[in-house]
Amino acid sequence: MASILITGLYALSQDLATQEALSGIFGSISLATWIFLLVPQLILNYKTGSADGISLAFLTVWLIGDATNLAGAIWADLVPTVIALAIYFCIADFVLITQCLYYNHLNARRSARHASIQSNGSDTENSPLLTRRRSSDTIGLPGSHRRRSSALSGRRDSLSKIVEEQEDEGNGWAKNSLSILGVIVVGAAGWVLAWQSGVWKPSDTDTGVQSSAPLGAEVLGYFSAVCYLGARIPQIHKNYRDKSCEGLALLFFLLSLMGNATYGLGILCHSLERDYLITNTPWLIGSLGTMAEDAVIFVQFRMYAKGNGQGEVGSESTAVEEEA
After folding, report:
1. How many CB atoms lie within 10 A of CB 318?
2. pLDDT of 44-59, one tens digit each?
3. For the whole model, what pTM was predicted?
4. Where are the domains of the chain?
């Protein structure tokens, strides 16, 4: 499908070089990917009313990387799309961090209130002995009704959870695939419209390559690359410590992987000249280098999804056996 799309776009004009067309297509898809990147995580946090799954250290370091990336891009006088993307992403990072802080604060207050209620009612645990005896005075052996109902409810809950997890997994992959396909279509269509309207114009690779970038811009670029590479480490560690990826949107990391890949390909397709690659090395490291860390998170999604499901069923069955 990608080859057909590229061939069709190239056929629109014989004056446009294939290399420059590929650069424009990949760059536009990357731009669309980054625009929608944080939306899945924002929606998941809103639906669950929690942000416990995502590491604030991950988001903070990522914000620092985006801020220094913006400063370096402006200093190096990169293309306007890169600068606009950096501005947008700083704003999006701030929105996501604000949402996480809000839910963390809200849930912390609820937990403190719940703990206070439990501590205040702990002295009444020994008082309702007569009530407990009356509730257990039923036909049959004492406690038989409670054990039977708890066993049946435990089995029903475990079976319903298994069915829901299987349905959610199948629907989730289908929705993620459609979402990624939609982002690709939007990005490619946006490039066609920008090209036909004259908003996007191919740059001359012979004269458009800067011989060197300002030293300060290079320093900021490399610093942002280090932040991007290090940002995912707290999230990977948190997933490993909790043995869970619950609360993380898989589509968020899938879009991150695709955005980094298309962003790097867009730079490489534009030119392979030495000076151009040296100028864009920090951004190449930051985009392509994080793909390996995204792969680690994908492995954690798969590994901990199986472990959590087995652990929950096992714990429930053990509890039922103990009650019986």
Report:
1. 11
2. 999 999 999 999 999 9
3. 0.70
4. 21-112+158-323
